[in-house]
C-alpha cells in the first residue's frame, strides 16, 4: 500500500497510526509502567473472579486481563479514588494498616499470624449426664481442667456437624461434635447425638473459673415434641412457662 501521499505522514514512516492503534500503544506503555511499580500479589484491590476476569475492588471495574487492570491502576479514575479514600480515612482517624494502606478490619489488611504453640496434651475432663426434673429434658455437664492454660486465654466451644470433620469417616448424620479448645492444650472433641440443643435462658450456659482454671459447659437437648413442632404457630413448648 502506498503511504507516501497520506496526509501528515513522512516518506517511509508507514503512515499515521489509527485511533485504535494509538490506544493499544498507550495501554501497553501504561502496563509496562505499572509492572515496574505494582506487585499484583500484594495489591489489596486486585481480585480474580470465578469467570477468570480481573476486578478492581476500589473502582468496581472489571478487566479481561492483567494488562488491562494494570493500565487502569495508572489511570485518572483509580488514582482519584485512591486519593479520596486516603483523605476520608485520615479525616475519620481510622487505624491504617502499614503494609496495605487499608483500615484495620477491611479486606486485604494484614492479619497477624498466630504463632504455632507446642501442644501439651489434652486437659482432664469429666462428663455428667443430667435430666431436668420439670421438662424431663436430657442434658450433659462438661467439666474440663486447664491448669497450664496460656496467660490471658480462656476456653472456647463450637458445635460441628458430622460433615465438617475429617476424622470419623464416613460421616454419620445421626451425630454432631462439640469442640472445646484452649491454648496450649489440644482441642477436645465430644461426639453427641445430632439433636437440637436448647439454647434458651437457663438451658445452656458456660462458666470459666480463672482461679481453679476449670471450665464448665452445661447443655440440654430439646424434647422430641419441641423438635417436631418447632416453628409451628400456636404450638407452645412443653413444660412450665417461664415468666
Structure description:
One of its GO terms (cellular component) is catalytic step 2 spliceosome. It comes from Ascobolus immersus RN42. The protein has 243 residues and is an alpha+beta fold. It has helices at residues 19-37, 66-73, 76-92, 224-228; strands at residues 46-48, 54-56, 61-63, 124-131, 138-145, 156-161, 175-181, 188-193, 197-198, 205-209, 214-221. It folds into 2 domains: 20-90, no CATH class; 124-226, Sandwich (Immunoglobulin-like), CATH 2.60.40. Helix content is 20%, strand content 24%. Strands 4, 5, 9, 10 and 11 form a 5-stranded antiparallel beta sheet that branches. A 3-stranded antiparallel beta sheet has the order 1-2-3. Helix 1 crosses helix 2 (66-73).
Quickly name the level 1 CATH class of the largest domain: Mainly Beta
The number of E-state strands comes to 11
Which regions contain 5 or more consecutive residues with pLDDT less than 50?
105-111, 238-243
Major beta sheet summary: 5 strands, antiparallel
Helix content: 10-25%
Rg over CA atoms, rounded to whole Å, is 31 Å
Number of helices: 4
Q: Which shape, going by the Cα principal axes?
A: elongated
Q: Whole-Å distance between the termini?
A: 95 Å
pLDDT average, as an integer?
Answer: 77
Q: Note the beta-strand portion.
A: 15-25%
Tell me the CATH architecture of the largest domain: Sandwich
CATH topology group of the largest domain: Immunoglobulin-like
Structural domain count: 2
Category by helix and strand content: alpha+beta
Element string (H = helix, E = strand) = HEEEHHEEEEEEEEH
Amino acid at each position: 500500500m502506498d503511504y507516501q501521499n497520506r496526509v501528515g505522514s513522512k516518506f517511509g514512516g508507514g503512515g499515521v497510526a489509527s485511533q485504535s492503534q494509538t490506544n493499544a500503544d498507550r495501554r501497553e506503555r501504561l502496563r509496562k509502567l505499572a509492572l515496574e511499580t505494582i506487585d499484583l500479589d500484594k495489591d489489596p484491590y486486585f481480585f480474580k473472579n470465578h469467570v477468570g476476569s480481573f476486578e478492581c475492588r476500589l473502582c468496581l471495574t472489571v478487566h479481561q486481563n492483567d494488562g488491562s487492570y494494570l493500565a487502569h491502576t495508572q489511570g485518572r479514575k483509580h488514582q482519584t479514588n485512591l486519593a479520596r479514600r486516603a483523605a476520608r480515612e485520615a479525616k475519620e482517624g481510622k487505624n491504617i494498616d502499614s503494609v496495605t494502606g487499608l483500615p484495620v478490619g477491611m479486606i486485604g489488611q494484614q492479619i497477624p499470624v498466630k504463632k504455632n504453640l507446642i501442644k501439651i496434651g489434652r486437659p482432664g475432663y469429666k462428663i455428667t449426664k443430667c435430666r431436668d426434673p420439670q421438662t424431663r429434658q436430657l442434658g450433659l455437664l462438661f467439666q474440663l481442667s486447664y491448669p497450664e492454660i496460656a496467660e490471658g486465654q480462656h476456653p472456647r466451644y463450637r458445635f460441628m456437624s458430622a460433615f465438617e470433620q475429617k476424622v470419623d469417616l464416613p460421616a454419620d448424620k445421626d451425630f454432631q461434635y462439640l469442640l472445646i479448645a484452649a491454648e496450649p492444650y489440644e482441642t477436645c472433641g465430644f461426639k453427641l447425638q445430632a439433636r437440637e440443643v436448647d439454647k434458651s435462658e437457663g438451658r445452656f450456659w458456660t462458666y470459666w473459673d480463672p482461679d481453679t482454671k476449670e471450665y464448665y459447659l452445661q447443655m440440654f437437648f430439646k424434647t422430641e415434641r419441641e423438635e417436631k413442632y418447632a416453628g409451628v404457630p400456636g404450638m407452645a413448648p412443653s413444660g412450665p412457662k417461664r415468666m
